[in-house]
Write a structure and sequence with these properties.
The complex is a heterodimer of chains A (79) and B (325).
Chain A (H helix, E strand, L loop, with lengths): L1 E4 L4 E4 L15 E2 L4 E7 L2 E6 L4 E6 L6 E2 L4 E6 L2
Antiparallel strand pairs in A: 1-8, 2-4, 2-7, 3-6, 4-5, 6-8
Chain B lengths: L2 E6 L3 E5 L19 H10 L8 E5 L4 E4 L3 E9 L2 E3 L2 E3 L5 E3 L4 E4 L4 E9 L33 E3 L25 E7 L8 H9 L2 E7 L3 E5 L20 E6 L4 E3 L7 E3 L6 E4 L1 E5 L1 H8 L6 E6 L2 H23 L1
Parallel strand pairs in B: 12-20
Antiparallel strand pairs in B: 1-4, 1-11, 2-3, 3-10, 4-9, 5-8, 5-10, 6-7, 6-9, 12-19, 13-14, 13-20, 14-17, 15-18, 16-17, 16-19
The chains are: A mainly beta (79), B alpha+beta (325).
């Protein structure tokens, strides 16, 4: 199972702003370079981009939770 | 023209040297490498003078392309380093040539890597230093963090240690869990009850997401200030005092529940009680603490702080000696 890992620590968000829809729903298809989440650290919101395409089968961190460097963010299935 | 191409700037990479001391009275903090030891050792590994500028990268390293022959070294946080996708050792001198690309994988320990390049990053000096102070946009490369596609000027490289020269194991950083920060209590610790001060020292504090070159905000306990009628000139928060100069590394607790350690790019004064100051050497330690890490404060006296500073100086000299032999 391929996972997407956090490259930095911080607070994890699945949507660009509190009222907005999530970047991607579970089960949704993503393409390489697509933004799938934000991590807030050092007073900036950093876009987390998919390094490869596929399907997000499951998010492993809840919206607004803290995330550590190297932690699995989501499970990636094949397209 | 000798230059360095920034293919990717990473998350927060800035040009830093030893810093810009001496301007605190006009409200300018020193900036400079957060982990001074790693910065000094990186410069030694490539034969640079002690005041040469290096790159400091937080959490995600940059991708750099070289345009001529140079010595390069990486110190600080533990992250796999590659040159043209082949692994190279950190804490060790290596040679690069035109077209070579230096890159980093995910950090395994610590928070900040330092990259020294023979000849140094020769951006113009501002008030005697090449350090970047992003809040006012001075120093470094255009006063900001590096962006993809930037080019940096490099100085003329002198002789350095031969490629393969390595820092002895006991003089490299170790990343233990639970980071102890030795602290001199004061200036305004009189504002806390003795029990509160003790609980401050006993509490394991967690580094929040708000932790950068300006300061580290911590969470984990609550501190009670002694009730009083606030003096003229002090704000109404119990954590307020009449304005004072903030020591670099000082700890303030606005609201009583989230201590902030002020670091190299912090405001130089204000109206919050500073209950202690981490010793200058341990700013190197907090520099390598990342969001989510645990830190604790230990009370020490000034003699201990000075001895620790002398010991760091001695460690740097031991590296210098080891690379010479």
């Amino acid at each position: 199972m391929t996972t997407i890992k956090a490259q930095m620590p911080g607070v994890f968000y699945r949507r660009p702003s509190p009222e907005a829809d999530p970047y991607v729903e579970e089960g949704g298809t993503i393409s390489e370079g697509q933004t799938i989440a934000l991590i807030e650290v050092m007073k900036t919101f950093n876009e987390i981009k998919a390094e490869q395409g596929g399907t997000i089968s499951k998010f492993l961190i809840a919206d607004g939770d803290e995330v550590d460097i190297g932690q699995d963010i989501a499970e990636l299935g094949s397209v | 023209m000798s230059q360095l191409n920034v293919v990717s700037g990473g998350l927060y990479t800035t040009v830093q040297d030893r810093g810009r001391p001496g301007h605190y009275r006009i409200g300018m903090p020193p900036s400079g490498a957060m982990d001074q030891y790693s910065c000094a050792v990186a410069n030694l590994l490539v034969g640079n003078p002690d005041d040469a500028a290096v790159l400091e990268a937080t959490y995600i390293g940059p991708r750099l392309e070289f345009t001529d022959r140079r010595l390069v070294a990486v110190t600080g946080a533990d992250a796999p380093v590659t040159l043209n996708d082949e692994p190279v050792e950190a804490w060790q001198t290596f040679a690069v040539g035109p077209g070579d690309v230096l890159a980093f994988a995910m950090i395994r320990g610590g928070a900040r890597v330092y990259i020294a390049i023979g000849g140094g990053v020769s951006v113009p000096r501002y008030l005697g230093s090449r350090s970047t102070y992003t809040l006012t946009g001075i120093g470094g490369h255009q006063g900001r963090k590096l962006a993809d596609g930037d080019t940096l000027p490099l100085g003329a490289a002198g002789d350095g240690p031969p490629a393969g020269s390595a820092v002895p194991e006991d003089l490299r950083l170790r990343f233990d869990s639970g980071i102890e920060l030795r602290t001199v209590i004061g200036l305004c610790s009189y504002r806390l009850t003795e029990a509160t001060l003790q609980s401050f020292l006993d509490t394991p504090w967690k580094v929040t997401k708000d932790a950068d070159r300006v300061g580290y905000r911590l969470r984990g306990g609550k501190l009670d200030f002694i009730e009083r009628e606030q003096p003229f000139g002090a704000g109404s928060d119990p954590a307020n005092v009449v304005d004072l100069g903030y020591p670099i590394g000082s700890i303030q607790v606005p609201g009583g529940d989230e201590p902030i350690v002020l670091l190299n790019d912090a405001v130089t004064g204000g109206g919050y009680a500073t209950i202690g100051t981490i010793i200058s050497v341990d700013r190197d330690r907090i520099a390598q603490a990342k969001t989510g890490d645990q830190v604790s404060f230990t009370s020490v006296d000034l003699d201990t702080a000075l001895a620790a500073r002398a010991r760091r100086r001695d460690r740097i000299e031991r590296v210098r000696g080891a690379l010479r032999s």
